[in-house]
Amino acid sequence: MSTPSPTPSAMTPSQTVGPFFGYALPYEEGPQVVPPWRPDAIQVRGRVLDGAGQPVPDALLETWQADGNGEIPRCPGGIVRAGHGFSGFGRCGTDAEGGFWFSTVKPGAVGESAPYIAVLVFARGLLKPVFTRMYFPEDAAAHAADPLLGAVPRERRATLVAEREGEREYRFDVRLQGDGETVFLAF
């Protein structure tokens, strides 16, 4: 006896991404886009928060960026960076308080854009990762000419700009929904 083939009405439901287990996805060197001891290294720290302002302890963030000169890296070495220099890629799972961190360099401007770091957030409850950008507060003049920021309502732009916390330290919190929700991008 043969089994009938599935019909379009028998499709399986979508699944959310996460939770993420500590095998292979987060890896020890993931948050170190560059070693923290480098003279040009910056630290980016933040938290992923849900709609109620509670931490999301099992999210995963990926970052992609240009180097300090605005060059997009085109070499291998995203996971094992030794011998490959700057890859422009970082990955960090959140801790129990929703916290994440990256050691990287401040990117240079690419094209007409102000310097930014592209951020992907994977979390439970999301069917697909959400995309956003992190801009730097000292680049306010460049923000005025940035095509993407120009398309975002003025009152929401602050959700895309990190806060400076020290000479080479920035804070960038990601709110998944609710008051102060981070602007997410559609592609």
From TrEMBL:
Gene3D superfamilies: Aromatic compound dioxygenase (2.60.130.10)
EC number: 1.13.11.3
Keyword Transferase listed: no
GO molecular function terms attached to this record: ferric iron binding; protocatechuate 3,4-dioxygenase activity
Pfam families assigned: Dioxygenase_C
Alphabetical keyword list: Dioxygenase, Oxidoreductase
Intradiol ring-cleavage dioxygenases domain location: 41-178
Family statement: Belongs to the intradiol ring-cleavage dioxygenase family.
Alphabetical list of NCBIfam families matching this protein: protocat_alph
UniProt protein name: Protocatechuate 3,4-dioxygenase alpha subunit
Source species of the chain: Actinomadura coerulea
Lineage: Bacteria, Bacillati, Actinomycetota, Actinomycetes, Streptosporangiales
